[in-house]
């Protein structure tokens, strides 16, 4: 019998589902595929611990090329027939249907905070200047002058409060932790930023990622 391969009739979009829109907010329903040494994956795992979801949402940390992992490939195939896009991580998967819900990290983080944990208080909007500084510090290609200005702004804020947005750590602190914990630019930081990194390093949610 002649084997027939059906052609793809249209481009398969990247998975961009959301919890609460077709996916119920049950933490044990979901599984995350992550990559060792990946800053985006570290943002996700640290956020899981900060939200108290580390024991509810399953995780698999992939070593090497994610495309070699059959379970992840199957989840992408389930998300889109004839899917031929890149198998990127972090990837949030629904264990009930076996499909990737999303591989868009900002949406994944928002769904963890609001959809699963119900803790929007841990992701308050940062002031525009601070949000810009965080983006600069997360950008490895940022010019030295921009990075120095971002560190100076952060130094001023942390001289007044123990964490970026007040008296307790939030998702903004997760981003800063990922940006600064091992970056050579942190050596330029003032005493307030250095003390801040020490506080994060002592916090269980952040210490586990060391």
Fold and architecture overview:
The protein has 210 residues and is an alpha/beta fold. The protein folds into two domains: 18-120, Glutaredoxin (3-Layer(aba) Sandwich); 124-207, Glutathione S-transferase Yfyf (Class Pi), Chain A, domain 2. The chain has eight helices and six strands, in the order E-E-E-H-E-H-E-E-H-H-H-H-H-H. The chain has helices spanning 39-51, 70-79, 105-116, 128-138, 144-158, 171-180, 191-202, 204-207, and strands at residues 18-19, 22-23, 30-35, 58-62, 91-94, 99-102. Strands 4-3-5-6 form a four-stranded mixed beta sheet. Helix 1 (39-51) links the parallel strand 3 (30-35) and strand 4 (58-62).
Concise overview:
This protein is of the alpha/beta class. It has 2 domains: 18-120, Glutaredoxin, CATH 3.40.30.10; 124-207, Glutathione S-transferase Yfyf (Class Pi), Chain A, domain 2 (Up-down Bundle).
Give a quick set of tags describing it:
two-stranded parallel sheet; Glutathione S-transferase Yfyf (Class Pi), Chain A, domain 2; four-stranded mixed beta sheet; 2 domains; 6 strands; 210 residues; 11% strand; alpha/beta; disordered N terminus; Glutaredoxin
CATH superfamily of the largest domain: Glutaredoxin
Distance between the termini: 56 Å
**Mean pLDDT across every amino acid position:** 88
Q: Helical element count?
A: 8
What does the secondary structure layout of this molecule look like, with pairings?
Layout: E1 18-19, E2 22-23, E3 30-35, H1 39-51, E4 58-62, H2 70-79, E5 91-94, E6 99-102, H3 105-116, H4 128-138, H5 144-158, H6 171-180, H7 191-202, H8 204-207
Parallel strand pairs: 1-2, 3-4
Antiparallel strand pairs: 3-5, 5-6
Helix pairs in contact: 1-3, 1-6, 4-5, 4-6, 5-7
């Amino acid at each position: 019998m002649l084997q027939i391969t059906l052609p793809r009739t249209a481009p398969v979009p990247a998975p961009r589902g959301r919890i609460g829109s077709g996916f119920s907010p049950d933490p044990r329903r979901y599984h995350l595929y992550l990559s060792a040494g990946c800053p985006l994956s570290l943002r996700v795992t640290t956020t899981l611990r900060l939200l108290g979801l580390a024991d509810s949402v399953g995780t698999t940390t992939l070593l090497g090329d994610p495309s070699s992992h059959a379970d992840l490939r199957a989840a992408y195939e389930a998300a889109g027939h004839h899917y031929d896009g890149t198998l990127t991580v972090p990837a949030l998967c629904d264990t009930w249907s076996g499909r990737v819900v999303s591989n868009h990290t900002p949406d994944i983080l928002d769904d963890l905070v609001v959809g699963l944990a119900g803790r929007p208080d841990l992701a308050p909007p940062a002031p525009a200047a601070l949000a810009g500084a965080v983006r600069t510090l997360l950008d490895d290609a940022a010019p030295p002058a921009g990075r120095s200005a971002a560190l100076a702004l952060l130094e001023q804020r942390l001289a007044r409060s123990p964490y970026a947005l007040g008296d307790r750590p939030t998702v903004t602190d997760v981003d800063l932790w990922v940006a600064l914990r091992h970056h050579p630019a942190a050596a330029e930081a003032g005493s307030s930023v250095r003390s801040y990194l020490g506080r994060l390093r002592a916090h269980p949610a952040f210490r586990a990622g060391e």
